[in-house]
Amino acid sequence: MSISAQHKAITHQKPRIPDFEELYSAVRTYEQKMYTDAQLAALPDFSIHSKEWEIRRRSSNRLLTYLARKRRFLKILEVGCGNGWLSAKMAGLPKTYVTGLDVNMAEINQASRVFKIPNLDFTYDTFNENTFDKERFDVIVFAASLQYFSSVVSVLRQAERLLNRGGEIHIIDTPFYDADAAASAAERCRNYYKDMGIPEMADHYFHHSISEFWGFKYKIMFDPTSLLNRLFKKDPFYWVVITK
After folding, report:
1. Phi/psi at 169 (nearest 5 deg)?
2. What mean pLDDT do residues 70-87 have?
3. What is the pLDDT of residue 11?
4. CA atoms within 13 A on the CB side of 94
5. Distances in Å between the alpha carbon of 2 and those of 5, 7, 8?
6. What contacts 195, CB < 8 A, 6 or more positions away?
7. What values do phi and psi take at 60, rounded to 5?
8. What's the pLDDT score for residue 75?
């Protein structure tokens, strides 16, 4: 093949589309959320991004208090655990064994390095029907991760399949929208990632509605739209529990 023909073949080759892990890592770096080991160990009590961590500290405390009251052994899976701070907090409860799952290798490696807890392990993998073959869990947590799945129904059915009888799925730190708000939020999302120089990430961020829980046995444990919560305007996210 001549040099000119080689050049033509190269220039007509389709550009490689970065996968979710690459895009998410780039976003985390841009947002300055790839923390040092010392910073990670301090979460959620942290001065950087303090407003966000104040919200997550309160939501995690509500969840931890709820789980502690069960007073029995709980096998827990956190889907989309990121750097593992919440998984580590749950592993600090008595009578628990926690698995943190995420597709970000850098954060999974850091979590394994920082949180050396006997009843805690971290797994680098996607969450789908093939992720766990025979394992079953009492609790599955989606904390700030459900918005990265295109179908609420599909991912929750997968999670239900992994639950023991009477098991629970907990969803926290996740935005939900009505139809009008979802459209405007999607536009803001596209502009946000475009300004960041990572426009492809908008294709991996989904704007879900509470109505998508129809058909599941669910209960809203914390409602940010209640009168009291709207008056104080502290926590913007629902806490939803689905029971098998």
Report:
1. -110, 130
2. 97
3. 46
4. 5
5. 5, 9, 10
6. none
7. -70, -35
8. 98
pTM, 2 dp: 0.91
Question: How many other C-beta atoms lie within 10 A of the C-beta of residue 112?
Answer: 16
- With b for 16 or more beta-carbon neighbours within 10 A and e for fewer, the 12-32 pattern comes to eeeeeeeeebebbbbbbeeee
The percent of residues above 90 in pLDDT, for the chain, comes to 82
Amino acid identity at 51: K
Examine the pLDDT at 4 and tell me if it is beyond 60: no
Burial class (CB in 10 A: 0-12, 13-18, 19+), 83: buried
CATH of segment(s) 18-243: 3.40.50.150
Two tokens, residue 139: 């609790």
User: Quick one: pLDDT band at residue 227, thresholds 50, 70, 90?
Assistant: confident
What are the boundaries of each domain within the chain?
18-243
Name the residue among 127, 128, 61, 69 with its Cα closest to residue 89: 61
* DSSP 8-state symbol, 177: -
Q: Tokens standing for 19? A: 């996968």
Residue with tokens 């969840």: 63
